[in-house]
């Protein structure tokens, strides 16, 4: 039923796969036929998602901090041990503490980069090495953000800069891995409603009323007049991981309901 978007027989790793966009990607991947390692810091949540995924493929959980030096090797090893290969990597894990640059500590700034960019880069390195060894090519999909192109609000300077780095890293790695038939693309989501959407706002000390006003102001700028859902990103990820995007590499697909137009 998935036609050119079919992932049957493919083995994938999705980081941050236990909730939000990552969970949506896992569910769609399994439905499309892929076998998936759900890599997440929250082992219990990852296990729940792995069990609820239904389709032609199957999923297994892996407790993992993408910021760890050995994270890339561990996720590749888990995929090879469980499924025999690694064909697709989705770098979805990310953090976005809302702290103005004048208040952020070096430790928090470094943590944002270690998760959002450094972890992504070295997971990609480990995955690419395995794909080259296998000899059949592969696909890497990085989850960036529209904040890579335009800041959405004060307090996300570290996050925005890290996502800008993801966009350029995607281009550079695509150039390097093209001769090995490994495609590297990114997705820049706009406002997506997930379990963790309001957490940074709450941590910043905003009241519920202030959060509602901010979200309504953002929603009013979206030409499609709605916030996105995880599945809006998941289906595009399936496309980029599949043969349907077989001649695409180094690109960032904006999926934002048109908000950057405003």
Explain what you see:
By secondary structure, the chain is of the alpha/beta class. It has one domain (3-195, 229-255): NAD(P)-binding Rossmann-like Domain (Rossmann fold, 3-Layer(aba) Sandwich), CATH 3.40.50. 44% of the residues lie in helices and 15% in strands. The protein is built from eight helices and seven strands, in the order βαβαβαβαβαβαααβ. The protein has helices at 20-31, 43-52, 71-83, 106-134, 157-177, 199-203, 208-220, 230-241; strands at 11-15, 35-40, 59-63, 88-91, 138-143, 182-189, 252-255. It has a seven-stranded parallel sheet with strand order 3-2-1-4-5-6-7, with helices on both faces. Helix 1 crosses helix 8 (230-241), helix 3 packs parallel to helix 4 (106-134) and helix 4 runs parallel beside helix 5 (157-177). It is globular.
Architecture, according to CATH?
3-Layer(aba) Sandwich
Find the CATH topology: Rossmann fold
The top-level CATH class is Alpha Beta
Low-confidence stretches: none
- Tell the overall outline: globular
Total number of strands: 7
Q: Domains counted in the coordinates: how many? A: 1
* Number of discrete helical segments: 8
Our estimate of the beta-strand percent is 5-15%
Mean pLDDT: 95
CATH superfamily: NAD(P)-binding Rossmann-like Domain
Helix coverage percent of residues? 40-55%
Biggest sheet architecture: 7 strands, parallel
In a few lines, what is going on in this structure?
The protein has 262 residues and is α/β, with parallel strands linked by helices. Helices cover 44% and strands 15% of the residues.
